[in-house]
Amino acid sequence: MKAARFHDRGDIRIEDITPQPLEAGTVRIDVAWCGICGTDLHEYLEGPIFVPAHGHPHPISGEDAPVTLGHEFSGVVSELGEGVDDLAVGDHVVVEPYILRDDVYTGPESVDYHLSDDMNFIGLAGRGGGLAENIVVKRRWVHKIDSSVALDEAALIEPLSVAFHAVKRSGVKAGQTAVVGGAGPIGQLTAAVLHAIGVKVIISELSGLRRQKALDAGVADVALNPAEVDVVAEVKKLTDGKGADVAFECTSVQVVFDTLMDTVRPTGVIVVVSIWGKKASFDMHKLVMKEIDVRGTIGYVNSHPETIALVESGKIDLKPFITGKIGLEDLVDKGFDTLINHNETAVKILVSPSGKGL
């Protein structure tokens, strides 16, 4: 079958590979759509990061580069391993793409399995990937979705779960006000979750196309251009001078973080959602005098069921965030290149590994 394989920085190849064997307790999934994630772009430009470098196998998967990429994907069950009796061939599914040690507790009460030692992701550290025609995944990580949810939209449930977990970490409640710094894919999806639970959303974003996307999708009440307006002053106007209850940093840009420190009210919360490749700084005195809480967030933990429910109920419409669809052979030229060099024009580009969806 065809698959996109990461060999090294700047070196992704479309290759013919042998499908993974079906084992007891696993599910084979014919991939319908796979999204290109910012993490994939970082691997291509700066990696290997999450991908184990050639000659340095991951301690859990035992694999090293080259590996098949892709961790944001949807598909259809095509084969069931021995012992899997709660799914059926033909079911529509998405994957929670974790690679964890076998002794890590991942039951419904766990709030920290995503923080366990050597945690990594399917589609980055091995065990197949969504940028292939099919994949075999342990049953624990496969989540059934209603057939009423289009498979292209379902491919966004993985990044939407990132947003859901970030919103949950913030403690924000319906009727409160949130500022989202940055309207890239995760910023847009964070706004979508916030809007779905009844939070007033103010987005700060330089790109006019992305600001308009957030407004057109109905996930932002207000979209501000920080190059043209004083974001802090505007937020205070919109909150009767108090400031926002929570803010979400979705850019890994210092000036955005600094601005959010000023937009939140005293005792406000800032959640850092983006991955920073460098050290950040902030005004410790301001942190103390306003009693601000700064919280990190990574991935998701038992987040997929509630996230899927939001989509199935119609409270979140993912269709507006799909801005392109391509075949596997166009992954680098039309996918990575667009998102790296023209990222203001796109939110989420989906890949059809088999080409059937195009």
UniProtKB/TrEMBL annotation:
Taxonomic superkingdom: Bacteria
SUPFAM superfamilies, alphabetized: GroES-like, NAD(P)-binding Rossmann-fold domains
Classification via PROSITE patterns: ADH_ZINC (PS00059)
Matching CDD domains: butanediol_DH_like
Coiled-coil ranges from the UniProt annotation: none
Pfam families (alphabetical): ADH_N (PF08240), ADH_zinc_N (PF00107)
The keyword Zinc belongs to this UniProt entry's keyword annotation: yes
Cofactors: Zn(2+)
UniProt keyword list: Metal-binding, Oxidoreductase, Zinc
Boundaries of every Enoyl reductase (ER) domain copy: 7-328
InterPro entries: ADH-like_C, ADH-like_N, ADH_Zn_CS, ER, GroES-like_sf, NAD(P)-bd_dom_sf
Record PANTHER family: GALACTITOL 1-PHOSPHATE 5-DEHYDROGENASE, SORBITOL DEHYDROGENASE
Family from the record: Belongs to the zinc-containing alcohol dehydrogenase family.
Stated name of the protein: 2,3-butanediol dehydrogenase
